[in-house]
Amino acid sequence: MLCGICNTNISKYRCPKCSVPYCSLSCFKGEKHIQLDNESGKRQPTTTSTSEESAVSKENDIVEQSIDGNVARFEDVLRDEQIQSMLKIKSLQFHLSTILRILNDPQLTNESTMEGRREIANKKLCNLRIGGIEENELIEDFVSRVLTLLA
Ligand SMILES: [Zn+2]
Ligand SMILES: [Zn+2]
């Protein structure tokens, strides 16, 4: 096939953008080809946006799948007898509700982003675990039980 740009040499490549066959880098970088690319860019805006949309929806599918998976796993945790009896203990309820409040109430921490609040809640939880400044055996037992069930 002849090069679609110089129409002289045999083409060895094809442009991924405008799919014109071309022979060499100098043709590929030439003025004439740049114009072809620009025109093809204008002609195919729908194709581009459709492929972008499908990529986005694929990503959403993955996120939804992993959320579904997590929900199922947390249901397993909640069905666990050890977890159920621990959740009846007042002091554990208190600490867990504190962590929930950190996560859900921006006024408590002055953190407007979920990410920031999650970090604070994480730190709080770490403090409550073995070796933390608020070390709490019950929390440690609870957290390690949850982690065992989720592993
Ligand atoms: Zn050429
Ligand atoms: Zn091209």
Automatic annotation (TrEMBL):
GO biological process, alphabetically ordered: box C/D snoRNP assembly; maturation of LSU-rRNA from tricistronic rRNA transcript (SSU-rRNA, 5.8S rRNA, LSU-rRNA); snoRNA localization
Every copy of the HIT-type domain together lies at 3-40
Annotated region Disordered: the residues are 38-59
The protein's UniProt keywords, in alphabetical order, are: Metal-binding, Zinc, Zinc-finger
What's any one GO cellular component for it?
nucleus
Family matches, as PROSITE patterns:
ZF_HIT
Q: Which SUPFAM superfamilies match?
A: HIT/MYND zinc finger-like (SSF144232)
Q: Domain of life of the organism in this record?
A: Eukaryota
| Keyword Zinc set for record | yes
For whether the record's keyword set contains Zinc, the answer is yes
Q: Name one GO molecular function term.
A: zinc ion binding
UniProt name for this protein: Protein Hit1p
